Predict the 3D structure of the following.
Amino acid sequence: MSPGFVEPVLDAQAAFRATLAALSHPGRIEELTLRLNPPAGVDAATAAACLTLLDGDTPVWLAPHAAADGAAAWIAFHTGAPVVSVAGKAAFAVMLDAASLPALEDFDWGSDEEPQRGATLIVQVPDLNAQGGWSLRGPGIATRAVLRIDGLPDSFLAARRAMSGAFPRGLDILFASGARLAALPRTTILEA
């Protein structure tokens, strides 16, 4: 099994800062400058997000292709996160193929009383770009941000827009591509 972070302390700090920056500034693409040894098919940003956010108290659901490709064993070994078989029971979900992203309704959105229980999705995508995409507005965005996320199913935009009406319930979504991360927290409003 390949190791996680090459420099565990420094790389964990850098990954945490990049993840926090992505969630704090929706639409901004964060470039990770750390060394990782993830299994085949797992991008560095996906692995870094898993190593940063998952632990023994955070049940994780892995999409079938992630579970079948050896990523499940790597994630479980390095994070200690219990793997669950039902998406709605997970605090986190990891998908290595954005095109097969399940319906957003399959995940736990939290409740009005406990919105913090809403799941965080880590979705690996072919590419992230700060030009020619959706217009974003909301907390952490001065006026507006633009983000293009390649590889998502056609139904994603409508499903994510519909989720906005459920606030404070919802999902926080991290998108990973290569060594880059971007986020769409539940507070972000998507415009075409």
